[in-house]
Amino acid sequence: MTDYTPVDCGLHSSYELAIMQHQQVRLSWLDNAASVHTETVLPTDLVTRNGEEFMRISRARGDSLDIRLDRIERLEPAR
Q1: Cβ-Cβ contacts under 8 Å for 71 (sequence gap 6 or more)
Q2: Would you say 78 and 40 are in contact if contact means Cβ atoms under 8 Å apart?
Q3: Residue 22 confidence (pLDDT)
Q4: What is the rounded distance in angstroms from the CA atom of residue 10 to the CA atom of residue 33?
Q5: 62's torsion region: left (phi>0), alpha (psi -120 to 50) or beta?
Q6: What is the pLDDT of residue 1?
Q7: Please, are residues 11 and 18 in contact by the beta-carbon 8 Å criterion?
Q8: Residue 40: which residues within 8 A CB-CB, separation 6 or more?
Q9: C-alpha distances in angstroms, 38 versus 6, 51, 72?
Q10: CB count, 10 Å around CB of 68?
Q11: What distance in Å separates the CA atoms of residue 13 and residue 62, rounded to the nearest whole number?
């Protein structure tokens, strides 16, 4: 059993649009320890595992990370 909460369809669509447009975004999210992270990243894909949805991001330092969609606090275009 998971505590995942599906995100609103409109929000999901905005994530897909950022991916399709290869748009860098300023993303804030909570990690597993409830610490907030904010970075400029490139979202590359949306993936589903075990009934949970994740945004795969590419970080400036070259690594990638999967962030559970219901842990994303804010997404806005990078400046």
Answers
A1: 29, 30, 31
A2: yes
A3: 96
A4: 27
A5: left
A6: 65
A7: no
A8: 24, 25, 26, 27, 60, 78
A9: 22, 25, 10
A10: 20
A11: 26
The pLDDT of residue 19: 97
Length of the chain: 79
Q: Name residues of the chain where pLDDT drops below 70.
A: 1
What lies within 8 Å, CB to CB, of 7 at 6+ separation is: 53, 69, 70, 72
Q: Give φ, ψ of 7 to 5 degrees.
A: -90, 160
Scanning the chain, the segments in alpha helix (DSSP H) are 9-20
Residue 15, amino acid: Y
User: Does the global pTM surpass 0.85?
Assistant: yes
> How far does Cα 77 stand from its chain's mean position?
13
- Token pair listed for 45: 């894909």
- In single-letter form, the type of residue at position 73 comes to E
Tokens at residue 70, please?
A: 């219901």
